[in-house]
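Re: that chain you flagged

S.,

Sorry for the slow reply, it's been a week of failed gels. I finally had a moment to sit down with the sequence you sent. For the record, here it is as I used it:
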Amino acid sequence: MSDHSEHILKAVNEIRDLIRLMAEPQVAARDQRWREELTNIVGRSVPKQKSVLLMDGNHTQTAIRQKSGMNAGHLSTLVKKLSQSNLLVGEARQPKLAISIPSNFFENNGNK
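Prediction finished late last night. Pasting the structure tokens below so you have them in one place:
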């Protein structure tokens, strides 16, 4: 990729991040019910919170387990509960949240 293309891609990514930041209050209002359900399922468990933040469709359950430190059985149960609540899309092997949440979502008990 040329330097010019890399510069443009970096600028576009910065614009995307700013738009996401500005849109977060509207997204939170739209997804309030789903975010409350997610908070109820995950609770205050730090490994569960880390696991959910890794559920972007790019990580397998094995990778999520390794990065979050969560027990394989507990992760499987979490994925099942999220799936039953329609909070996941795609396949359970590489779970992806059906809603978007900011990286600091669990820092404020899901109220952000």
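What I noticed first: The chain has five helices and two strands.

Talk soon,
D.
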